[in-house]
Design a protein that fits this description.
Elements: E1 9-10, E2 17-18, H1 32-40, E3 44-48, H2 63-66, E4 76-77, E5 92-95, E6 98-100, E7 108-115, H3 126-133, H4 140-149, E8 154-156, E9 159-161, E10 164-166, E11 172-179, E12 183-194, E13 200-209
Parallel strand pairs: 2-3
Antiparallel strand pairs: 1-13, 3-13, 4-5, 5-6, 6-10, 7-11, 8-9, 11-12, 12-13
Length: about 220
């Protein structure tokens, strides 16, 4: 199935390697094997740390762990800015073995687990077709209604969407993150590594930019 994007413009994904815009603490640096796998997939690589591990008293932290606290423990990430720092650009969070999206106000996401498929196959999926043609809500009441619709297993054309999805090694996910007055992008990512401590490493590609959504607020 060949997809023609109506609203979103395709992005090239020739940029390969680490996705950070600043020097990372060692604990957030992906392993060499994960970085090599991301390169093989023609994707960027990022490592996420479970947020709950770092939600404890200061005395319980090692110095290395403590240095990541200004990044919300390494649990959040923006695919657009390449930063772990929690902000209005944050796209995803790792918490208790699950990915979570949609954190601020009326912002929301279209998020789906595509299963055991490759990153190359994502543009040919019904989920990508739906996400790329979807028109975001333009008023705050409608945005909050849409936000609620995509929480807790929204079923659209037989496909499931949720803001909280289980982390599964080898699975590929599709995310359209709608951040009003900030960004609106479509990203796909594959889980390539899960450590015994629950650290998760992703290989990802930004597939499309859908402009800068503006919201008429109450």
């Amino acid at each position: 199935m060949k997809i023609f994007l109506l609203l979103c413009s395709l992005l090239a994904f020739t940029s390969i390697g680490f996705s950070q815009n600043s020097v990372l603490p060692p604990i957030l640096v992906p392993s060499e094997s994960a970085a090599a796998e991301a390169t093989r997939l023609r994707a960027k690589v990022v490592k996420l740390l479970p947020r709950e591990i770092f939600m404890k008293d200061r005395d319980a932290y090692t110095e290395e762990e403590f240095q990541t606290r200004n990044r919300e423990g390494g649990a959040f990430f923006s695919f657009g800015t390449g930063s772990h720092t929690y902000s209005k650009f944050s796209d995803i969070e790792l918490v208790k073995g699950k990915f979570r999206t949609g954190f601020l106000g009326a912002d929301y996401s279209i998020f789906a687990d595509l299963g055991l498929i490759s990153l190359d196959e994502v543009p040919n999926t019904p989920e990508f077709e739906f996400a790329s043609k979807y028109q975001p809500a333009l008023t705050e009441p409608n945005a909050r209604t849409e936000r609620q619709r995509f929480i807790q297993d929204a079923k659209i054309d037989g496909r499931l969407y949720n803001d909280l999805l289980q982390v599964e090694k080898g699975h590929t996910y599709l995310l359209r993150a709608i951040r009003y007055d900030a960004a609106d992008t479509i990203t796909s990512f594959t889980v390539i590594e899960i450590s015994d401590a629950g650290f998760v490493t992703l290989a990802y590609r930004q597939l499309a930019s859908c402009g800068l959504p503006k919201l008429e607020r109450d």
